[in-house]
Amino acid sequence: MTSFASPAERHPRPTDAAREGARLRRHWRELVRLALDAPDVLTSSMLYPHAQGTDRKRLEARMFGSRSDRLALAACAYAPPAVLARLCTLATADADATLATRLARNAATPACGLQRLADGLQRLDDTRTQPCGDRIAQLLARHPLAPPALLARIAANTASIDTLRSLCENVGVQPDLLAQLAGRGIEPLQRLLAIHFATNAHTLHHLWHSTRESAVRAQVLRHTACPGELLRSIPASSLERRSLALNVRTMGEVLTALARDDDPAVRRAAATNPATPAGALILLCFDADLLVRRAIAVRDDLPLKVVEWLAEDSDVWVRSSLARNRACPRIWLDRLARDREADVRRSVTRHLACPAPLLSLLASDEVAWVRAGVALRDELPGRVLHRLSQDTDIDVLAGVARNRGTPQATLARLAGHASSDVRRSVILNRHAQRRVLLPLRDEPYPLHRVLVFMHSSLTDADRWRMRFEPDAEARARMYGHLACTLAAALDRSREPPSVATATQAHEPGTHQLTTSVEEAG
């Protein structure tokens, strides 16, 4: 059994290079053995990208020997791209339509693997698997990592509306391909083309003049690349006017007119637009529609007079939004901090410039949710933080546990709290020290153990002791980190001493693995 190096041994002397390499290889062999003995293949998959030679073949035999294991890996959202690429090769060689479908659906499948699946589609084009082949083509057309050449090839070789629709929904499609699709004049695709962020002004202009559909034109008017001449007139359709009111490039006089529109949805859109003139905002802050006033209350460019009017609004959401707004001055924060509604007082605690006297006042609020908002403030005075640490409410204690100013002794006490929410907050505190986190390595929740494992305060020796993790997903994530660290250390051990020293100087965060378990205690 082996473990990680102590800080003093992370830079061994060149004369110890041979012994260091032997120790690193022993670490790696143990990690591979544990992965092969694990009851699932996820652990082996995390070592696969870093394995070479015989180890790589052993891991392949463990991962790909069973079709059920292949299918499980193909559906795993965090499987390494190297594993998914290898599965694409196997799916093509075996003409396994089910495996290919899962790989095409997996967002982590790399571009090279998607290309192999596309090349192997013709093997699925018989009578029995034709529907599967169409489904794979649709998934490839929608995949965000599909290379542009593959997408262009799919577009040129298909007449399927479903596949073309998938192309229009793909965030990686290039503007020239979108222009080609728009040129086909297929009505079901026009709205999707108008929505796509990569559609250029020329294509939008073509869509505007080739359709009478209000939904399509509304998307053209909302698009950031919308031609300027389309933003200078007010359309008749309410849907189009709302989109025009949302576009930040719409002229000020047009937005002023839209702020007086009969449709409250259009007025709400104008209220959210940062280009809406101040005169229109004054009009909107008295709007009869609650949603319009709420949209005004979240703007951070409000004139002081508008803040005064909104602070007296009868709607609690308006006052709550205003209390969080950085445009709200101190004088109105004082008033909102004494509001009858707890949600408003809670919002005051989340104001970026909330002064310390108000935080001290709200730390004694009768509603725990308000006190919890105070506990999340990092700049709290020590006496206020101490008072909150004596609270009995879970939300308040969780806020104290996340606070970077909480003393380590308090964090150690909260780390033993009966509530998992409080313990998780301790783990998420980036300033928690190693001695606080060590007892949390035995947390009953796998997510908590993974968060402890990845905390920067732990040493590599601490992480190595967690290699017997019982949960499959947690173990896979831990082994992925250990394998990456070991592989980097092994690569350095094979370099000449001068090169290895230079590499360590440029990669201070990667540690070497040297000591045995007995030496690590």
From TrEMBL:
SUPFAM superfamilies: ARM repeat (SSF48371)
Region Disordered: start-end pairs: 1-20, 494-521
Residue ranges with Polar residues bias: 511-521
Compositionally biased region (Basic and acidic residues): 8-20
Name under which the protein is recorded: Leucine rich repeat variant
Organism of origin: Paraburkholderia diazotrophica
